[in-house]
Specification:
The protein has 364 residues and is of the alpha+beta class. It has 2 domains: 89 residues; 240 residues, BirA Bifunctional Protein, domain 2, CATH 3.30.930.10. It has 12 helices and 9 strands. A 7-stranded mixed β-sheet has the order 1-4-5-9-8-7-6, sandwiched between helices. A two-stranded antiparallel ribbon has the order 2-3. The protein is elongated, with a radius of gyration of 44 Å. It binds 3,4-dihydroxyphenylalanine. The site of 3,4-dihydroxyphenylalanine (DAH) has 11 residues, from strand 8 and strand 9.
Length: 364
Amino acid sequence: MPGPEQPADLSQPAVDRMVADALAAFTAAGSSAELKAARLAHTGEKSPLALANRAIGTIPGPERKESGQRLGSARAVVNRALAEREAAIGAAELERQLAEERIDVTLPVDLGPEGAPHPITALMDLMGDVFIDMGWEIAEGPEAESEWLNFDALNLGPDHPARGTSDTLFVHPIGDHIVLRTHTSPVQIRSMLDRELPIYVVCPGKVYRADEFDATHVPVFHQIEGLCVDKGISLAHLKGTLDHLAAAMFGEGIRTRMRPHYFPFTEPSAEVDLQCFVCHGESVGNPDAPCRTCKSQGWIEWGGCGVVNPRVLIACGIDPEVYSGFAFGMGIERTLMFRNNAADMRDMVEGDVRFSRSLKGTAR
Ligand code: DAH
C-alpha cells in the first residue's frame, strides 16, 4: 500500500538542489543517449521539478505565487542548461562523425579493365564523319537484301559470276530471292529510290561472301559505299572526293591513282589504288629492294569506283540527261590493315580485347 503522498518540498534549498542535481547530470552526460536519459530524469514527467510543479496547486494562496516563481525560474535555468549541453554534444558528435567518415578521394581505385570500341566500328565512324563534315548523309539498308537490289538493279545480270552460290550466301528458301548482301552497293539503289535529288550519301556496313577464312579473307566483313547524284557531276568530283578521304585516312601527301576497271553499275569504272606506304613505289623495277606489301607494284588496291551507269539511273527513275553521279566502295578491314599495319584480318574478328586495346584511339 503506498503511503499518503508526501507534500512536495518547494522550499528554496529544495528547489536549488533539484536544479543543481539536473545541471550536474547534464554535465556528466557524455553522449546524446546519456543526455536523453538525464533529460527524462530531470525534466520528464516524473522528475522532481515536474512533481513539484504539479504540487503548486495544492499550496495555499500567498505562498503559491512565491513557489510558482521559484519553480518557474528554476525550470528556466534547467532548460537553458539542457539546450546548451544538447548543442555542445550534438556539435561534438557531428565533428567526430565527419572525422571518422572522411573519404580520401585521392586514393587509387580499381575500376576494372577499360573497354574500347572495336577498331572496325571506330574506323567506320571515322570514315562516316569525313563525309558528314562535307554535308553528306549516312544511308542504311538491310543485311538480308533482295537479290534484285543486290544484283539486278545494279546491272549485274542473271549470268554474272558473282551471283553463283559459290560466292553468294542465299537465305533459305532460295526461291525467296533473298541474299546476304555481298556489297553495300544495293544501298545506292535504295537511296536513289527513296531520296530526293540531289543525293550525297555514304553507307558503312556489314557484307557477306562465301569466302575462305584466312589472313586476307573473312566471310563477314565491312564496306563503306558512297553515292553522289547531282547535276554536272563528273569523274573529277570522284577523284577529288577520294583524295580527300585518302588524306583523312592516311595523312596529307598520300598518293592515289584510278586504274581503269569494270563494274556493271558504273561507266567508266576504276579501281582506286594507294601508293604503297611501305616502299613509296621504290621497289618497282628494283629487284634489290623488293616490297612484300605491294609485291613490288608500287600501288595497293583500296576500292572500286566510277561514274554511275546511266542504266542504273534509269532503273531508279532518274533522268540521265539531267543528272549524273559517282559511286565508290571500299573495304573497312583493308583500310584498317593499311592504316594501322594490322596484317591479319582474323585478328579483327576473333574478339581478343588486346587487339582492340592495341589500336585504341588510333581511329580518332
Ligand atoms: N561493290 C563493289 C565491290 O564490292 C565495290 C564498288 C565498285 C562500289 C564500284 C562502287 C563502285 O560503288 O562504284 O567490289
